[in-house]
Amino acid sequence: MNTLTARLAAVAGERPHHPALVCGEERRTYRELWENSARWAAVLGAHAVEPGTRVGYLGRDSAFLVELFYACARTGAVFLPIGSRFTTPEVEHLLDDSGATVLFVQRDFAESAEALTTSATVLIAEEATGAGDGAGAPAAAAGAGDPVVQFYTSGTTGVPKGVVLAHRSFFAVAEALAAAGEDWVDFLPGDTTLVGVPCWHVGGLWWVVQALNAGATVVVMPALSAAGVLALVPRHGVTTMCAPPALLSLILDEPGRRPEALRTLRKIVYGAAPISQTLLRRCIEEIGCALAQIYGLTETGNTAVCLPPAEHYPGNPLLHAAGRPYPGFEVKIVDRSGTALPRGAAGEVCLRTPARMVEYWGRPEATAETLRDGWIHTGDVGHLDEAGYVHLRDRVKNMIIRAGENVYPAEVENALHRSPAVADAAVIGIPDDRWGEAVLACVVPAPGHRVSARELRLFLRELLADYKIPTRFVAVEAIPRNGVGKILHRELRAPYWEGRERQLN
Known about the structure:
Elements: H1 4-14, E1 19-23, E2 26-29, H2 30-46, E3 54-58, H3 63-75, E4 78-82, H4 88-98, E5 102-105, H5 110-114, E6 121-124, E7 147-152, E8 162-166, H6 172-180, E9 192-195, H7 202-214, E10 217-219, H8 226-236, E11 240-243, H9 245-253, E12 267-270, H10 277-286, E13 290-297, E14 302-307, E15 324-325, E16 330-334, E17 347-352, E18 359-360, H11 364-370, E19 371-372, E20 375-384, E21 390-395, E22 400-402, E23 405-407, H12 409-417, E24 422-432, E25 436-445, H13 453-461, E26 472-475, H14 489-497
Parallel strand pairs: 1-10, 3-4, 3-5, 5-6, 9-10, 9-11, 11-12, 12-13, 25-26
Antiparallel strand pairs: 1-2, 7-8, 8-18, 13-14, 14-15, 16-17, 17-20, 19-20, 20-21, 22-23, 24-25
Helix pairs in contact: 1-2, 1-7, 2-3, 8-9, 9-10
């Protein structure tokens, strides 16, 4: 049962008429999802797709996306989801790097697809046809360790790499929690869940599969918005959802939001980006359902660490933590030489999880650098407390070195978010001839406020060591973020480091 095809076949047999997918006006029962995936598998076969072939999809989240994913699983192909907001060069890089031979495109993106220079066969999803209905076609023999999907990292620190995940990546967390009798992140057959993360991101597709593995109903949003969430939750009686902090903030700030709109929710799982303590307190107080925080990477097969619902209460100091590893998962903190550090010491966070990636596609050296002796080296800085909870500080590559002192942007950003004058903030390092790097804060002023460097410095003095306080403040209209809410620090840094051979000083 720990392959996607076997599990979907079982659920379709157990509850064929139960709704599996809802997307706008489209509905799919479990029987329809199973049979449609077989039909699309026949289409793939007609285009010479075989085990290991990369099959791309360019478009918004949809019922078809899920059907195509399972069609790939049936044929042994590897699904390649491509973000609908990606530029032509970005799409071409993914197709070229993956070697995809077939690309399905939503009709709305057909014009964009015409601009692609690719050897892949391009098919309009709404028009593609294949041989027969495929309903009786046998599924390819697959094992838990066989590749099934290839996600590309966000590219905030360089050229995106293809992270290959196997079937086991979609079962490991649920199996670990079930074996330990825990329900930190749970999916019940009677649940209706909403996907608040796009499915080109591991968090979105992982969430869809967890719900389908349990026989629940999944509500898919083609375009994420706070207004859309507030409309869909009461309309479909949504009981659980996943969301990045940026979306939760928009939901809480949505004009005219009615508190009862979220009343059916029993649990929200958030992750994909750091959350400010102010926003976390608002979620606890204003939404009122159980909350769970998850932490992980595409390379770890999504989540490897969780802050369970039991820890989400006002005043709990553990709300500053990312959480603790799932039962049977492991975490360690290492220094630059790879030596494990004691509790309380800051270093790189390393995770050992049965859901971990197979490899970076076509990059054996990068794979060996990240995946060492079964451990994923995350590139995140953090420490373990005495109880084994992970506390994150920042990305290694975002770290600012000012006069030999390490400054972690996330720590400064969280402090800035506590100011009533700040609606949003991002912190970067810029060249400084005297100190190596200076700390610059890009600040979105809160309504009715303006950016005052003096006032913000005075405010931060109570929260941060003096060397961490930004020396410059710049007012901006918005902070650039990727599709799952992560700050694009590299984009903010670019103008300040332009023309320099090295991106450090």
